[in-house]
Amino acid sequence: MIDRPETEPTPLDDAARAGWLYYVAGLTQDQIARELGTSRQRAQRLVSRAISERLIHVRLEHRVSGCLRLEAELARRFGLKLARVAPSLGVGVDPLPSIAPTAAAEIERVLRAAEPQVIAFGTGRSLRATVEEMTSMECEQHKIVSLNGNISADGSASYYDVIFRIADRVRAPHYPMPMPVIAQSTEERELFHSLKPVQSVLRLARDADVTFVGIGQMSDDAPLLKDGFITADELRAMQALGAAGEVAGWVYDSDGHYLETSLNQRVAGVRVEVGEGRMAVAIAGGTPKLVALAAGLKGRLFNGLITDELTARALLA
Amino acid sequence: MIDRPETEPTPLDDAARAGWLYYVAGLTQDQIARELGTSRQRAQRLVSRAISERLIHVRLEHRVSGCLRLEAELARRFGLKLARVAPSLGVGVDPLPSIAPTAAAEIERVLRAAEPQVIAFGTGRSLRATVEEMTSMECEQHKIVSLNGNISADGSASYYDVIFRIADRVRAPHYPMPMPVIAQSTEERELFHSLKPVQSVLRLARDADVTFVGIGQMSDDAPLLKDGFITADELRAMQALGAAGEVAGWVYDSDGHYLETSLNQRVAGVRVEVGEGRMAVAIAGGTPKLVALAAGLKGRLFNGLITDELTARALLA
DNA sequence: TCAGGTCGCGAACAATTACTCATCAACCCG
DNA sequence: CGGGTTGATGAGTAATTGTTCGCGACCTGA
């Protein structure tokens, strides 16, 4: 995206203004039209643009009692230090729009901490959507580090890459990992890992105080496959070995134990590990991810979970 | 329909859920009613309750959102009918390039009105820069009138004169004021004012529907001095009398009250006054003008303000 | 027990918002 | 230069939302 010079006579600034007047000031679109000196139709279009461009963020400042019970139960059952359950929007509906704002609030809570933290982020649709929901803030004291490489097979930065987006929002020092998500070979991985700058980023990521990750399923619709990081053959091979899910490219089985596959010997990023004083929070929801989530919880691969109501209920069933 | 959890939801829980479904999932209140197993009216009441109980927080994530907040605050604090804050370009940078396009848009909005308006303009760098940003348009229905005389001491038309420029751009009937900005004496002023054609222009300017003016500071770098309308001695004398700023040549103190100086008895143009149905909009920004602006706002010399972000923040501090 | 008050409900209606459609101008692109 | 495409616009209309009103349930104190 090209950012325009700031003096510009407003491209979607009008949309922002309209959205502000509509949602914050509570004006009717008719009044907004008068305010902006335009037609009612245009005002309506501006308002709806403000939504579709994700300029408007909505948060729920109330913990629904049903969700609270699920959170407590999840924490108990899976030994979680943090459990957050967003109200579901309905069966069969993508839970991301519900999870993302909830997760964003949680990340912001971490960022508001006064003492400096190292915060690591994975990649994926969930995280990307979450970051889009975050507010801008000034967090010079923290460090934001990427868990995975952020260069895809064709050399382009992945669309779902999160680190730059988040760093942009919170204006904190950030450490991308300048290498592929998955190396061609173990040797190539070692080559990357032997580079000085990479080593310090790896160290930072490994020792991060808080880590936020998405979860990938290893069924036929695996994100790793969809995004072109592995081939259909590789996927089938790992399914045969019992692959149940994947975190930051690291594949694990239905007990939540990491597999000894050729892929895992080529993943360039760091493996998520929980430890005392260190949080690893999974952000995921939806039926396709149920198996992967359940396996990861069973193996205690993370000690935090942000999901939605229906997923939570299914996990507990 | 989803089966409800076994615990009874508190009244607020339902409101929260309804609000979530409405704003996040984007369901209609009808769908929410079905989802919750209730009537449409109840769904509507739950949604509005979620707002009135402040369970739902709406925010705007856009770089101008801060400006909108400042506008609302300025309007509230200083009783303005119009407040516009342009995003600043940075500390220490001339804010004019940011203010001018914003102000130009505002002026154009007035000009687009179908019913005939009388629009008065002051002079100065800010207005001049603003006019340069305006697009051409056909506005035969309006009248454009100058607030001040537009002949400087040496007989030349002032470079910062605005009226001809604007009239040229919008092709509207225009009324310059054929006399000096500041007369040699009160008598000379009265002489000019007694002329028939001058009187009608004065009347037009005094009763203008909308007036746009710049603000001049009265510190040592006063525009009045720089442009040779007053001498350094005169400036010092007025500073001693508490001069804080000046609008169209009329000097006022830090409470926004016009001074009874010899200069004010010689200013040839009309004094800006707000009135019901009449707007007086100040276009100004930058550190040097802060004192003058604050004073003018305090004295309610104008009921509209177009400025930049940094200035707005300083005015509110 | 009963008058009086409050509250939530649904019906009906008014206000507001969203969508569809036809038009038009700008913009490519050969 | 002409044809096709895109994108913005206002008119008109359908859908949705907000409000008012009367009703009945329920509480409460005399």
TrEMBL record, chains A, B:
Keywords: DNA-binding, Transcription, Transcription regulation. One of its GO terms (molecular function) is DNA binding. InterPro entries: NagB/RpiA_transferase-like, RNA_pol_sigma_r3/r4-like, SorC_transcr_regulators, Sugar-bd_dom_put, WH-like_DNA-bd_sf. Pfam families: Sugar-bind. Residues 63-317 form the Sugar-binding domain. The keyword Transcription applies. The keyword Transcription regulation applies. SUPFAM superfamilies: NagB/RpiA/CoA transferase-like (SSF100950), Sigma3 and sigma4 domains of RNA polymerase sigma factors (SSF88659). Belongs to the SorC transcriptional regulatory family. This is DNA-binding transcriptional regulator LsrR (DeoR family). It comes from Cereibacter ovatus.
